[in-house]
Model the fold of this input.
Amino acid sequence: MSDVIAAAAEFARAAHESIDQRRKYTNAPYIVHPQAVATTVASVTDDPATIAAAWLHDVVEDTPVTLEQLEAEFGADIAELVSDLTNASTPADGNRRQRKAIDRQHTAKADARAKTVKLADLIDNLSDIADADPGFARIYLSEKELQLEVLTEGHPELFQRVQKIILDGQRALAK
Done:
């Protein structure tokens, strides 16, 4: 593991632990999610900046960490990737549908490397949603199907995996 990846992993762990963030449905320490995303990203690229961004992808959105702090710690390239991965909408932007449309527009403009991280993020987030929360899963799968339309520049293998997970989830919920 490169120094920047190891530093990003430790930074993410500390940031998420600082607020005792937990995974919804399992209550596991949140760091299991960035770790899973980084592992998936590392399976398709050896680019240290992309893997570091995978570790850090939720710190600005979920913790007090700012993009300026990330840039000071990891440089502009990684901070820009994390910015691409951070939701652009705020609660003041309207209802969930409106906010997700804003976030899709933001993601559409993202670097292809960030789109690869986003695909890995979806793989982890979609992995058990249908079983954990079938009611919400219907909404979530539909949202992610729309999001997939702007992720075509991401890694093709991950893109196909997300397509399959969404289709399988929709079929399971239709039964």
